[in-house]
Here is the input.
Amino acid sequence: MAEKIYIFDTTLRDGEQSPGASMNLEEKIQIAEILEDMKVDIIEAGFPIASKGDFESVSEISKKIKNSTIAGLARAKLEDIDTAWEAVKHANSPKIHTFIATSPLHMKYKLKKTPSEVLEAIKVTVSHARNLCPNVEWSCEDAGRSEIEFLFKCIDLAISCGASTINVPDTVGYTLPNEFGNIFKQIKNNVPNIDKAILSTHTHNDLGLAVANSISAIQEGARQVECTINGLGERAGNAALEEIVMALKVKKDLMPFYTDIKTESITRASRLVSSITGFSVQPNKAIVGANAFAHEAGIHQDGMLKHSGTYEIMTPESIGLTQSSLVLGKHSGKNAFNKKLNELGYELGDNALMEVFGRFKDLADKKKEIFDEDIIALVGDQTTRIDDYIKFVSLKVNAGSFQKHEADLILEIDGNKKNSVASGNGPVDATFNSIKEITDVNAKLKLYQVHAITAGTDAQGEVTVRLEENEITSQAKGSDPDIIVASARAYINALNKLLIKRTKSAPDKISEVKVKGV
Here is the structure.
């Protein structure tokens, strides 16, 4: 009999810890809803003690999501645990996830605690969490570098105090698959009460082994996997949900396990997370990359024409990647456009639909042929959000080898239109100087990246911008046939996200930005 593997998605918690990957409340709810639609078992909605914004988002997700368990993260501190419970208690199925480090390195330098003090902390905090919530998960941070005998003691104690899930993380992506699998094997064989808890795995990709380590853990007894959409996460990222789920599905002959994940929603979830965070998916990324089902070599194409199984181990349809049947142009109406969006896996509300449709019509007037990638970029461009505090209105630039580089920019700030004319070392620099002049926010530009969405000289340009202010980073994308306009949109979108992250609240609550004349 195949055994179920529970999917614990931490895109909203560990994923958001990626530098620049800030999300507002509305965006987090969007992601939570698609995770619920995918039938994710557990959604880790955030770290409630971290900020008022985190608490609010976990609380609201707990109220809205009905079919998935909602988890809140807490350190081994009573205040953390109480706050996590206050945030998740509204859920149909709440969960407190508490953790403490167990490696000698972390205990000595980070916690400044002895092993005995760590054991006492586990006893007090896990017991307290269990008194509040029937579903408690305990994690031994940096398990991959912990002493195995001490790990046994910690796990045994956590289960005795009420933890029903034990998560063993490779926090810094340090172990090899055989090493990590062996940790699970030893835990299964040496912790007396391990049968009273579900073993979970949480891996990071510092050596590119996160998915391989998770699979190894499953083979040695883990029945829950903690992962993120697109492998999003701090440093090199977490194990990618889509890769683990499809590996189990494709290799079920060798691994008698299954998940409840609706895999046809994978592509839609991947695109949503990418568009909200501003983190592009690399073309050769497994499962969801643009080239994952592309075949250019003649031998491959010949094989595909004869039988798709010659070079594809899964079908595009199995992850929700279907061939669209509608061709759109400047004469297309809103209903046809909405149907195309549905074919591509998007469902927009009325206001968002009208906003994106308006930009589509503008694009159709400039471009001879509209590709699916163009529409995906329009939906993903966060300037389409109607609740942004700062909005792009218009831009005129002077550029060229003999001209002064100057940008004449109009922005809408909290409903008020503001204008600035600024010069710079090139049209992009001038445009960014205009934005700084209007907003009076002088964040550092840490990344500026441009690529063409499709082929042809009339292709849309997609720009990625990362900003940093006081060690807070934000990253976003913008698209437009005019690369300077795309640059402005990307910068403004990243700036909106920076302001959100600065306050950790929804855009309509932003009050800290200083705008000249407002």
